[in-house]
Amino acid sequence: MLFVQFRFVVFFLIVFGVHWALRTNTARKTWLLIASHFFYACLFLGGPDSASANEFPPVTFFKAIAAGQPLPVGWWFPFVLWGSTIMDYVVGLRIGDASNEWKRRMWLLVSLMVNLGVLGFFKYFNFFIDSVHATLDWFGLHTSKGTLQIFLPYGISFYTFQSMSYSIDVYRRRLEPVRKFLDLAFFISFFPQLVAGPIVRAMTFLPQVVEKRVWARVDVRACLTLFFIGFVKKACISENVAPVVDAFFNDPGKYDVMSTWIAVLFYAVQIYCDFSGYSDMAIASSRLLGYELTLNFDFPYFSKNITEFWRKWHISLSTWLRDYLYIPLGGSRGTKAFTYRNLMLTMVLGGLWHGASWTFVIWGAMHGLALIVHREYTRFADNAGVWWQRLRPFVGTVFCFYWICITWIFFRAQDVVHPKTGQIKSSGFEVARTTLKSFVLFDQNGSKSFSNSCLWFFAGLVAVHWLASRQYLARWWRRIPDWLYAALLGVGLAVAFAFVPQQFKAFIYFQF
Amino acid sequence: MRKWIRTILALGAFVLTLGVTARLLNEVQLFAEIPSLRDKWRYYQEHKDQYDTLLIGTSRTYRGISPAMFDQLSGEAGVPTRSFNFGIDGMFPPEDAFVSDHVLRDPPKNLRWVFLEIGLFVDNFEGRNPDLVRTVYWHDWKRTLLCCRSRLWPKGKSEKFKTWFESEKGKATPASDCLTHLRLFFVKTLNLGRGSELLGDHFLNRTGKGEGIGPARDGYAAMPSERVMKGKELAEYQAEIKLRMDTPARIRSLTRYGEESLAGVIERVREIGAQPIVFIAPTTGSRREHPSEGLAVPTFDFRVPSEFPELFDPANRADPAHMNAAGADALTRRVADKFVKLARGQNPKPTLSPSR
Hints:
The complex is a heterodimer of chains A (512) and B (356). Chain A is an all-alpha fold and 512 residues long. Chain A contains 20 helices and 2 strands. Chain A has helices spanning 6-21, 25-45, 57-66, 77-97, 101-138, 156-171, 181-189, 191-194, 202-210, 220-250, 257-288, 306-312, 315-326, 336-354, 358-381, 386-412, 428-441, 453-469, 476-479, 482-498, and strands spanning 416-417, 424-426. A two-stranded antiparallel sheet of chain A has the order 1-2. The longest helix of chain A is centred in the first third of the chain and has 38 residues, at 101-138. Chain B is α/β, with parallel strands linked by helices and 356 residues long. Chain B has one domain (31-346): Rossmann fold (3-Layer(aba) Sandwich). Chain B has 12 helices and 7 strands. In chain B, the strands form 2 sheets. Chain B has a 5-stranded parallel sheet, sandwiched between helices. In chain B, strands 4-6 form a two-stranded parallel sheet. In chain B, helix 4 packs parallel to helix 12. Classes of the chains: A mainly alpha (512), B alpha/beta (356).
């Protein structure tokens, strides 16, 4: 069940109606907890493709069970979620009740080890085995590879970080341990943010859980507008540029330079619209239920430099990494080399958080490098002449976006598998190298091309995005009467529907 | 109270504008997302007033009847026509009725004759992907309702409720098919994916493998004469034809819903002052479906091997369902011959009365 599917609207309307009809806060939280687990179950009950399947996953599930088929892959995902929740609940109480600092530290260590251990096993076990095998192979020591078939539970990277933030904040005495298990379970599994964030901090969310939500405080119009914007981003933009991106990255050697540029620019659009669209819909759904989630994107592609970019892109992750990794590592409190080590380590681990692949590591390292270079450059540029100070924002924005596009090439580059034989046609590195040659050095790889109208489409998106970033589109709809707003929403939705493909891909960040 | 009124008013405005906009968008770039229809429709729209005769049907029409030759033959026989072949691959009822409705909505000024091929009424999704735009685009309310009724009450009588949930192994139940039809109705009504299909074609420079309008620009494209059946396919075909020579396929009446679909088109053809003619393409099979006498429509039935041996000659056929170029010439001659007789007032009658 995806936010952009009709079945989500039905699901949400039922959840919404019952939630506000219930009188007590406990009843509401219990209801939302049940709904959250139902939502989570829908993601895997119908099998690996259930996220984009047409049949309602529980129907597929019961049909399969009735036909005597084995349980679907991922039937055990909720146990990991519950295990993580129960463990952090116990750890939180133990830290709160611990009589000395040593015990507090030990309990925190338990939380970190279990959470990171689970995350590491599911996400990095095969990556680790593959890497060791490849290294030994390189030295001429041929070993038999013993990888396991491991399925990554949906949302594990997100809910693990959330529950860890709870344990750390309790340890740091910024938060009282939660006494009611329901509160913590609800916080970790709240469905709008369960699978792909935003990574909500316990400090931000738990106080909202304690207090009963009030309908009068819900700004319905703002929520509907935000949900609609998120829907358009995901369903109408990301999904429509995806075929171009997929066609290119399946065989980048066939395309000319212009098409390489189109594909890379479109991927920048796709990943932004996919993820920020998801975040918008998550925030809007959550607000409609009375809960506030963290802002996750703030027009990152208009950042004037890479440091600003990381303040505006996937804000919930970057601030998490800053507060729970970069600063504990020492942040910028030591020598220059020490600071740069911390920066690089944080970004590489941030890259690795996205997935177990060397291309993600390179992606993180490139951002780390850019952050270091920017720090050095800032000292020099602050003393530059007036003309440069005037040009700097524009040049900075263009150059920053160009660099981000280069890093996206590594982020997107995956092994290309032959559809029939299943063998790897070209590795992710080869894909990245071929694309880079064309994107950076303007090497003509092939003659196949996409329509040049793609560039006009891109230009149109940039223009609309710029208008939105300048808040030109943000206010007028608040002043019009309800009936006119509803009428415009009807027109907008009818037009948007025409650009919604019949079958969706799951959100890109679901895989992380 | 005022708040409730405001809410209801807003909801009403939302539904109204959503519906009106979706309806308007339905008409924008009609059939553009259907490669098999797009080019033919565009060409027809631009040139329709040149034609007085239309041939609407499946690939058997599209590949089997040459308008240029038909016009020449009927002209030589003193019944001049200018015809256009609107046959589309795989266009079975009720899809053909949907397309016919559009073709006849703003008909050619001098339209006089409309040939309608009889095909099997398809109300289920066996062997078809319901999510293809080709399956979606004809699901207007009329066609959706017809398909649902056909699945739930195939004989037109009140079926037992439980039969809606019964099916042969591996096949969908009537209830499930109805739900799919209803889903497709909403997908069609809301234009889901139409713009997306067009955008994808445009971005990826996909030219589309749609049916062309043919070398003579009359909507007809033959299969090459060299394309003939071989091996097992040929042996099976010959055995079938041998059987049909001795025992012609039985004449059956159209299914209730197939007839209803056809009747709607016939009525429309008559409304605009043209003469409908239905025809049954020369294919194999144990039965041939005729419209009921109540429709009073001339029927050209070519599914009789003993009567039209050249149409069943393997040298004239690309496969059991389609003629090749040589076969198309033969079929066109036969169609023109029957047509001329009809036009001169010698209305050919079916050899047997359809039995219900």
